Each structure stands twice: as C-alpha cells, then as structure tokens.
Amino acid sequence: MDLDLARLLARPAETKIVLLVLDGLGGLSHPQTRRTELQTARTPHLNRLAAQSDLGLTVPVAPGVTPGSGPGHLALFGYDPLMFEVGRGVLEAVGIDFALVPEDVAVRGNFCTLARDDAITDRRAGRIATKRAQKLVERLRTIDVGPAIEVFVEPVREHRFVLVLRGPDLDARVSETDPQRLGVAPLRSEPLHPSALATAQAINQFCDGARRQLTDAAPANGLLLRGIAKLPQLPQLEDVWKIQAASAAIYPMYRGLARLAGMTALGRPASFDEQVTALRQHWDAYDYFFVHYKSTDTAGEDGDFDAKVAAIEELDRQLPVLLDLEPDVLGVAGDHATPAILAAHSWHSVPFLLHSPYTRPDPRATFDELSCAHGSLGTFPAAAVMPFLMAHASRLSKYGA
Amino acid sequence: MDLDLARLLARPAETKIVLLVLDGLGGLSHPQTRRTELQTARTPHLNRLAAQSDLGLTVPVAPGVTPGSGPGHLALFGYDPLMFEVGRGVLEAVGIDFALVPEDVAVRGNFCTLARDDAITDRRAGRIATKRAQKLVERLRTIDVGPAIEVFVEPVREHRFVLVLRGPDLDARVSETDPQRLGVAPLRSEPLHPSALATAQAINQFCDGARRQLTDAAPANGLLLRGIAKLPQLPQLEDVWKIQAASAAIYPMYRGLARLAGMTALGRPASFDEQVTALRQHWDAYDYFFVHYKSTDTAGEDGDFDAKVAAIEELDRQLPVLLDLEPDVLGVAGDHATPAILAAHSWHSVPFLLHSPYTRPDPRATFDELSCAHGSLGTFPAAAVMPFLMAHASRLSKYGA
Questions:
Q1: pLDDT tens across A267-308, in order?
Q2: Which residue of A has its CA nearest to B4?
Q3: Interchain contact, B5 vs A65, CB within 8 Å
Q4: What is the C-alpha separation between B275 and B263, in angstroms, rounded?
Q5: Which of A64, A141, B196, B384: CA 20 to 30 A from A126?
C-alpha cells in the first residue's frame, strides 16, 4: 500500500498486533524425503494456528529477487524495499544503539589479517575475541581524519566493528575497501560521485592510520570497510499507521531495522522467553510488536536441514507463551526464504500466516509452503503484510464513500 | 523486474536455460466434456515434469487484456509490454532477416483484390502463390516516392510482403490503408502527428504507384498497408541479464521478435527435431535458448479443439529430445491463451511450468490450467518469467544487505 494511502486510512484502535518473524522462513524439499523443512518439522501449534488462519506466500522484493535482511524486513514493515534502501553500515550502527544523525556516514568494519605485502590472508582476523577487538577499537578511535570530521568506532562482536564519520559535508557514495577475496591488498576508497571526494579521502586516511595503529596486532593487523551508507529517511510507523510500535529482538541488526521504522526496542532480550516477557511488560503501552526469531535463518545459512527443522520445532514448542498474550492479530512471517539445500537466502516466496477473528481458514491446512501456496491470501508482495495486519486489527477505515 | 534492477543483480554463471513457448497455450473447457485442451490431451511427459516443477499462471499484459504475439513474447523475454511496443511491420521485416536501421519505417503489406470501383473484394488476393507474389514485388520496387526516400519491398509468404521506407525524416505515426473490411476502397494514409506528413505522402504515393503497376495483376491488383512502425529500442538481453541468448523458431515472426531482444537465430529449423538439433549444436555458445512451437496457436485460432489437443500431444511426444539436453532450468510457457472455443487469442492467464533443482513441486500436479492455478508461483505477470528463470539458474545476486 502506498504510504500516503495508509496515512489517509489509518485510524487508532484498542487492538494489539504481533508480527512474529521467523528469519529465513521457507525452504525447499530435501532431496531424499522430498519434504521441506516446514513439512518435516513437527509443529502442532503452528499447524493448529494454520487451520484457523489466513495463509499465503509473500514476495519480499520482486519475483526472482533474493533479499538481504534489510529489504526483507523493510517490506514486512510496509515499505517498498526498492524505494527505501538501508546500507549495512547503518544497520550495524543502529543495531548497537549508536545514535546516528542524518549527516553521519556509517561503515561496517572487519578486522582482517594482512601479510607483509598487505595481501589479505584472513578476512575475519581469525574471528578474534570480542574483548580483544574492544582493545583494538580504542586504538582506532585515536585516528585523525581531518579537522572537520569526528570519528566514532564501536565494537560489535568478534572481528566486526562500526565506523561512523560525522561532519558537515560527508557523502556516502564512495567505494568499499573490502575486495571480498584473499591474496590481494585492501582497496582504496574512491568517490563514486564528485561530491564524495572528501569522504573517500577521510576513509583512506582512516585506513592508513589503522595500518599504523595495528602493526603489532596480528592476526588483527588490518581492516576492511564496506556497507558505507547514510541513514535512510523512512516515514515512521507512528506517522503513517497511527500505531505505537515496539520490537523484541535478540540480535542488534533487527532491533536496528525496527528502530529505523520508528519502533522502540524493548530492552535486549536474550531468549524467546525474554522476548515474550518484554511484550507482556509493555503490552499496554504499544499497539504493534515485532518479535524476531533468528535460528531458522542461521541453520538455513549453514546448510543444515536438520538444524533448521529443529529450530522450527523449538519455536513451535515456545509458541504457546506468545499465544497466551492473546493478541487480536498475529502474523507469522519470514523476511526471505533460506532453504537449507541452498545454504543461503533465496528468491522463493515465503510462508505467511495471519490469525485474527476475521480470516477464511482452510481446516485441512498446515503451516508449510504447499498449504500457504493454496492459502486464502494467495501470493502477494510482502509490503502488503502491514496493511493486512492493520485491517484485521480494525485500524483501517473505508476508502471512498 | 525493472530492467535497471536486473542490470544491477544479473551475474554470469555456467548454467543453461531453455524457454519453450507453446504459442497460444492455455484454453477453455469444451462445452461437452468440460475439460480444457490441456486437460483433454494425453501428456505424460508434461505431467511428469509438472509434478516435479513450480507451476503458476502468467498474465501477459494486464488482467483482461488480450495480447498479440508481439507483447506476448516481449513479456516472456522480460520486457513490460506496455512500455515497449513492436509494430507488426517491424516484426515482419526482422522476421525475413531484413536489416532494419533506426530511421526506417517498416510496413506490413498484403496484396488484395480490388473491383473496378476500387472496392476490396478479397483482402488476401486469393492467397496467391508465393512465386507469383515475388514477381509482383519486383514491380513494386520500381515505384518512386520522392528523392529522399529509398523503397524496399520484400515478399514474405503468399499474399504478404514487407515495405520499408528509408529516409532521414520519416515518422511512423501515420494511419493504415487497410480498412479491415470488404466492399470499400483502401484508405489514404493520414499523418497522426504533424511531423509525419511526408511519411503519409510517401505511403500514398507508393499506393498510387502500385495501383498503376498492378492493373493487370488481378486477383492481386491492389494492396493494403498496416502495422506501420519504426524499430523499438529494446534493451538487449546480453546487456541487461549478462546472457548470450539464442532462438530456435520455425516461423519468421518469432525469430524476428527474438532478434529484437538480442537473440541470435540458430538457423531456420523446419521441425521441432531440427530446433532441438540447433540447440544441441550451439549448446556451449549460449546461456539461454528460446524454442517456439506454433501449432497449438494455429489450431486454437482455427477453433479446432481436437487439433489443439493433437498439437499439445504431438509436442508432448517430442519433448524427451529436448529434455535430453538437460538444461539447468526449463520454462514451459505461452505467449497468450488461444482457447479453441474462442478461435482467437484471449485475455486468460497462461499455464507456466518451471523445472530446476530449486522448485516446490506438488506431486499431485498435472500440466493444465487448474493445477497451474494452484501452483507454487501463483498468478503473476509474464514479465517475471525472465527473473524466475535467471534466479533458478543462479544468475541473480542478492539485493541489499
């Protein structure tokens, strides 16, 4: 739905919406059993829900397009992911609660291992311990890239950190320094637009400074920068849909994505139970709750069919505590498919379930790709999930007389 | 998919894609049996494929819109057929290997029979023999339409020929001379835009010259001109999708359409067997092969339900030689439906089958309209066939982080 139309139709109500995102939901058949991960998993709770819900398949970006986590989530939050882009650097920064301002350029950084001739020998510096990385980040904070530019460096986890450059005339249209392969030196950042010259220079100065600061820090004696981006100007959920929205996500990136859309992060839960507890504690204060479940995607990316099945079953076991909250509308969705046989995100459409008092359930349905393909919602753009949730929550008024 | 997005995501791979287009695929139920042509035909090979494939229904142009062959094929090649138009004159010209240049205006011509008062008595001049038409075309080549304009006339088949006007200031926005009915005289061409005056005059001069040249040539003593058009500037498949694409089509028009998109025509095969042989001979040199099968449409246009069933069965019998090539991705599609009970192209959605290692088959599926309506791909724009084929061929990279 066009966001201007959404602004026109959205109206407040007393209803509660929960969107549960199973990251990488949806897969492909195991070559032996010919059953997908969802078809293989024992999911009594999801299946019971499915038989009482609207089902469908979502297309995150466009037919044939494999989405990253950014576009996959933006679509579920109601944004056309081709209109609104979120750079990886921005994702990482907001995911660690770094308060980005519009002038900032945010960069995703990796420590890496460089040989004597500057050739990269390990793009992740042996996944150094987070504690060690924190020490090295302190050294990086001392690097000077010029009088008008402030430098912030924040550790994320293991070899990963965030670099933020703050200054009046920064422009993120510069090239990355990560060549994405071994045996060559890190690249120099080049301006991709005439007005980005100063930013490329600052990034290169930062890299030169880091090379000096990290000489003795092997295996973390170099760094690679990518995902160089500014904050996207996303219309905020509250303004568009007249809802107070909150997120309960374990991983920083998903909290960060939710915050970009205007959601308040409900603490830093460390388990599904803590996520649900966060919802319960803040149930009265918000209208819409985004709950993120990661392990389905992790198992899929690892190419571990059985682990993905187990992750689905684990979620299913824990589902009742979420259902106990009795939201008026519950959506179960995925940001993209991650079929274990591909060991990667994929372009396939994603199972979707919508539970409310106003659905057209098929009592024979189960929660899997095939049932969803036959579902009452058909195959539809993921950006329509938001208006569906809102409509079922009695939060959209009639269009036209 | 927007072609700019396609350019961004497309990446080379070693995979082979075959798109088999059954012209006019998809029909309507026979009034007695209540089964469509596809449901009536015995198609063991297509049915076996269907049970191992993704199925769906394609919408060639827009809901309710009946496509001509041009838009139907352009959509399957990934173009929005409402953005890119191919005039019939252009189709005919490129289909006989006429090397059109951008300044040319191409026209589809018919010999016709005129009475003494110039009224049309047969719009196809009794379908005169191709040899006879060739002789008459030689006369038409002598017609002078002015100093700055070159005239090319080429026979096509029976009563059909192509007229190409070449000159610096030609503009195809002129009206046709074919009134599309009997008992009236051919029309004068009128400019439909101020800058097309000279072109309309040249066309009328050509018609006047032809009337003189053909006085003694009854039943081919007149001509009708339509499909007046310039070459469309189609982004080429190689530039957009990073593929080398080839066509194996028996009929000139489909070779021509494919050539407009940048496909190399693999000779002039005369049978399905020769088409497959052409693919085999050039298998290593190309990534994408378009194979066109005409007789489904011919039977449909003739309103011959049984002949259409037979055409489908004939294709099914021959399918194994194509499958023996073992393409990584096989699409079976139609450019539009041609239901025998309508004896014409129709607006109905068109069965589509996609076979690859990465599908979500329904083992109970067969290849017909009903199974495709329940298929895992849903109902989708035909222009998405191309990104689907590319994604399944591992030729599209991820969008966003």
A1: 999 999 999 999 999 999 999 999 999 999 999 999 999 999
A2: A82
A3: yes
A4: 15
A5: A141
State chain A's mean pLDDT as an integer: 95
Q: How many helices (H) and strands (E) does chain A have?
A: 14, 13
Q: What's phi and psi for B315, nearest 5 deg?
A: -60, -45
A392 to A8, A62, A396: CA distances (angstroms): 17, 25, 9
Chain B closest CA to A238's CA: distance in Å? 25
- Does pLDDT of A219 surpass 80? yes
Question: Which member of A36, A64, A346 has the closest CB to residue B387?
Answer: A64
B6-B10-B14 Cα angle (round to 5): 145
Q: Is the peptide bond before B219 cis (omega within 30 degrees of 0)?
A: yes
Q: Which residues contact B116 (CB under 8 A, 6 or more apart)?
A: none
Contact B5 A71 (CB under 8 A): no
- ∠ at Cα A74 (A124, B361), nearest 5°? 85
Query: Residue B107, SS3?
Result: strand
List the single best residue of A65, A160, A348 to mutate versus B (max B Cβ within 10 A). Answer: A65
Instruction: pLDDT band for B362, please (50, 70, 90 cuts).
Output: very high
Q: A329 Cβ partners below 8 Å, 6+ apart? A: A15, A16, A17, A18, A354, A355, A356, A389, A392, A393
Containing H/E element for A38? helix A37-40
ipTM of the complex: 0.87
Bridge partners of B252, per DSSP, are none
Q: Is B285 exposed, middle or buried (0-12, 13-18, 19+ CB in 10 A)?
A: exposed
Beta-bridged to residue B153, according to DSSP, are B163
Q: How many other C-beta atoms lie within 10 A of the C-beta of residue B341?
A: 16
B360/A70 touch (CB, cutoff 8 Å), yes or no: no
pLDDT tens for B28-84 read 999 999 999 999 999 999 999 999 999 999 999 999 999 998 999 999 999 999 999
Q: Are A215 and A150 in contact (CB under 8 A)?
A: no
Closest chain A residue to B376, measured at CA: A373
Cis previous bond, B194, omega within 30 = no
Q: Find, in chain B, the residue whose alpha carbon is nearest to that of A61.
A: B399
Q: Tens of pLDDT along B120-130?
A: 999 999 999 99
Chain A residues inside the 8 Å CB shell of B400? 61, 67-72, 81, 85-86
